Amino acid sequence: MYVNYYDRKVKLQDENPTIGILLCKNKNDAVVEMTLPEDNNQIFASKYLTVLPSKEELKKLMESE
């Protein structure tokens, strides 16, 4: 909702469209789809962790990429 508000009330005409980020403890594609406008191409949703991985887990992740 903040993206729509910002685009309608704050953003200047010569500015690019607002980019939004949804941070979700549990990503639910259906909720994201119904929350955003149909023509959405500038808002992204992803799952985030509330606790950082251990040093060993992070090292494994980096090596696998």
Write the SSE topology:
Layout (H helix, E strand, L loop, with lengths): L1 H9 L9 E5 L4 H7 L7 E5 L7 H10 L1
Parallel strand pairs: 1-2
Write a structural description.
The protein has helices spanning 2-10, 29-35, 55-64; strands at residues 20-24, 43-47. Helix 2 links the parallel strand 1 (20-24) and strand 2 (43-47). The protein has 65 residues and is α+β, with helices and mostly antiparallel strands. The protein has 3 helices and 2 strands; from the N terminus they run H-E-H-E-H. It has a two-stranded parallel ribbon with strand order 1-2. It is elongated.
State the gist of this model.
The protein is of the alpha+beta class and 65 residues long.
Major sheet: 2 strands, parallel
Q: First CA to last CA: what distance? A: 34 Å
Strand order of the largest sheet: 1-2
Going by helix content, strand content and strand pairing, the class is alpha+beta
- The chain-level mean pLDDT equals 78
H and E order:
HEHEH
What fraction of residues sit in β-strands?
15-25%
The parts where pLDDT drops under 50 for at least 5 residues are none
Shape: elongated
In DSSP terms (H or I, runs of 4 or more residues), the helix count works out at 3
Give the key terms.
65 residues, 40% helix
